Amino acid sequence: MTRTGAYGERLGAFLRLDEAPPTLMTRSLRNAEIAVTETRNDNPVTGLSGSFAAEDAYLVSLKLRDYPECEIWEQGRHLTKADVHAGTTYLYDLKADPRYLIDKPFHSLHFYVPRSALDGLADQSGGRRIDALDCIPVGHDDAIVRHIGASLREGLCRPDEANQLFIDHMMLALTAHVARAYGSFQYKVETKRGALTPWQLGRACDKLEADLGGKQPLEAIAAELGLSVSHFSRAFCTATGLPPHRWLLHHRVRTAKRLMRERGPSLSEVAILAGFANQSHFTRVFSAIVGVSPGAWRRDALGRASRDQ
């Protein structure tokens, strides 16, 4: 049986990398696999890239390094030669057997977006399914892909700190953007189901609070509320002012503050109890949200408590 899915180890083999490249994946759209893989080779051996099994899927490639005179091939024929610039986005149709000549250092992020994810987005959002993405062989100046790529690179560098809610949210955003920008997808305007009911909001917050580590996927929470992932994400953000993964980070900080008002647990213990990957992760997130380090906040809080007594 031919394996499909142009990400992770298979993408590494396609680019003739010695090790499997770092990858993050979600299944938040009708169980469709959507993934991002970071590929880099500073000393490649010259030769044509490998070939993927044809499938109804796309690669959205964000270039992180200039690649002059890139030779692109499709369906066994030389298609074009072009200067690829860092920061540009290219789309490749995996039904067309895209390949390119590897003859200089490269560094890219590749988003794997199968047809099932695009169809799932349309079905859940009430919009029409798109025919195809526009895969003309030119680079796009796409600020949204760059922003999403920059956010996910943090997770690729520190996968233990990238909770599944964050990955789901960013992949959903990427899929929706690509469908709109390169497939002319339009959301169906929702008027009657635009907000979460009080019980839905309460249940969603309870589910998030019960899983401080953020391991539960968005799809599971949305399904329990009888909503699509895309509708739940938009409605939750409207109700709380934050997407689910950001709301969870703020809740972790609130939990950490409660724990740090006691003299018992160390900061490393607080980090784990509040759902952070480690003390370093805790310090980065807490400092970004609160504006001071956990240690400084704790000293001030305990000092105030002593004075009050």
UniProtKB/TrEMBL annotation:
InterPro entries (UniProt xref): AraC_XylS_family_regulators, Homeodomain-like_sf, HTH_AraC, HTH_AraC-typ_CS, Tscrpt_reg_AraC-type_HTH
Protein name: AraC family transcriptional regulator
Short name of any one Pfam family annotated for the protein: HTH_18
Residue intervals of the HTH araC/xylS-type domain: 202-300
SMART domains given in the database record: HTH_ARAC
Keywords on record: DNA-binding, Transcription, Transcription regulation
PANTHER family per the UniProt record, alphabetical: HTH-TYPE TRANSCRIPTIONAL ACTIVATOR RHAS-RELATED, TRANSCRIPTIONAL REGULATORY PROTEIN
Keyword Transcription regulation belongs to the record: yes
MF terms (GO), sorted A to Z: DNA-binding transcription factor activity; sequence-specific DNA binding
PROSITE patterns: HTH_ARAC_FAMILY_1, HTH_ARAC_FAMILY_2
